[in-house]
Amino acid sequence: MNRITTTLLAVAVCGFSAFSQNNGAITPDVLGKLKKMQGSAAADKALANALTATDINVLTRNAANPVAQNKFFSNYVKSEGITDQKSSGRCWLFTGLNVMRAKMIAKYGLGEFKFSQSYSFFYDQLEKSNLFLQGIIDNAKKPMDDKLVEWLFKNPLSDGGQFTGIADIISKYGVVPSDIMPETFASNNTSRMNMLISYKLRQFGLELREKAAKGAKKDEIQKRKVEMLGTVYHMLSLFLGTPPEKFTWTMTDKSGKPISTKEYTPKGFYEEYVANDLNNNYVMLMNDPTRPYNKVYEIDFDRHSYDGKNWTYLNLPMDSIKAIAIRSIKDSTMMYMSCDVGKFLDKNTGVLDSANYDYSSIMGTDFNMTKKERIVSFASMSSHAMTLMAVDLEKDGKPVKWEVENSWGSDYGYRGHLIMSDSWFDGYLFRLVAEKKYISQPTLDLLKQKATLLPPWDPMFAPEE
């Protein structure tokens, strides 16, 4: 190739490169146009001065929001005591146990009562560790860059979860009262424990893959896995304490007067005081407008134990979900629900309402997306589980607002509760778990269809924290 040809080619390549980089880039010309678009009104200067020194939620807060002013609810389920998950992602566990304790308090006329979250959390973390290790074994022949293998190593352990964890763990291991296995620093602050155990699990996962690659027998690999779980069990015991096999508990009434004193096993305590088939008596409902309604979906690996059930849900429109929720509340039965709790939350009043803050007026642009648009653009997803306990109905039966029992302590929100306008409920509720008796037979019949299997990395199914 001669010099002239080489030079022309170089110019062409450089020119194309420059064009490629500038086409769509912010050039000085584009930047100049952006600056000319900006106004210089005194109002903008005042807003800029305010925003540099003040939280935008303070400036845009709607102090006259009627939802925040009216705390009356026409239908509610009474409970005793607010729980606090502290710096942990165990909202799913607190919510599930709170649903069960409300039934126990009402049935036996108890005062404040709480199940031990630490006890159930211990076995949750042990079972999730086994789920990861066995998942590595089952997929050992796949390459490291396989999507599922990659997902497993990215997510060896989490303190978040779903209602499936309640059903899997409690049905298998039972429950104990909170004073039998109380909270520890690590249960309230899970990050360090999670980091260390996750590190070991990844290390163990690589070892198991290496053994499989070298042709180790199945029994040898399983034996080594059990040894690995022994290490995890030891670490959990140091962080959370050792779960009791038997315990003595005294039941007391609201005045503190003893009713009975007995010795129990955790499974026996569950069978005597909860006695609910969590795997078969409940239906997991979802409102996901990105997928067809009245269809059943199953999320692969979205379970808390290897021998447990994947999270399987029925996708329903909001009107159907709300009708089920209203029937349950009217019958004094709380429900597990989850939502995108951070959107338009006024933490001082505990109100969730899109009318809480007027961002559009102060910014001069709208922030309007539909629920479907927010989901597909990753602007919204389920982030937190709480206990649905109240609804305020108009005379015609239409809901005005909803109330949940939260697990962020009694000082947060409205006495430990959050209040949701019905419009916010429509836009940001994603999951509801209800007993079958509150669901119509035609709706239950929809569960007979074969579920569509979705991958564990689907953005709609991150663990609730």
Strand percentage: 15-25%
Shape: globular
> Average pLDDT value?
92
User: Are there runs of 5+ residues with pLDDT below 50, and where?
Assistant: 3-20
Tally of alpha and pi helices: 18
CATH homologous superfamily (4th level) name: Cysteine proteinases
Binned, the helix content reads 40-55%
Note the main sheet.
12 strands, mixed
CATH domain class: Alpha Beta
Rg computed from alpha carbons, rounded to a whole number of angstroms: 27 Å
User: CA-to-CA gap between the ends?
Assistant: 64 Å
What's the number of domains?
Answer: 1
Task: Explain this structure.
With 465 residues, the protein is α+β, with helices and mostly antiparallel strands. The protein has a single domain, classed as Cathepsin B, Chain A (Alpha-Beta Complex). Helix content is 43%, strand content 15%. The chain contains 18 helices and 14 strands. The strands form 2 sheets. Strands 1, 4, 5, 6, 7, 8, 9, 10, 11, 12, 13 and 14 form a 12-stranded mixed β-sheet that branches. A two-stranded antiparallel sheet has the order 2-3. Helix 7 packs across helix 9, helix 7 runs antiparallel to helix 12 and helix 11 runs antiparallel to helix 12. The longest helix is centred in the middle third of the chain and has 23 residues.
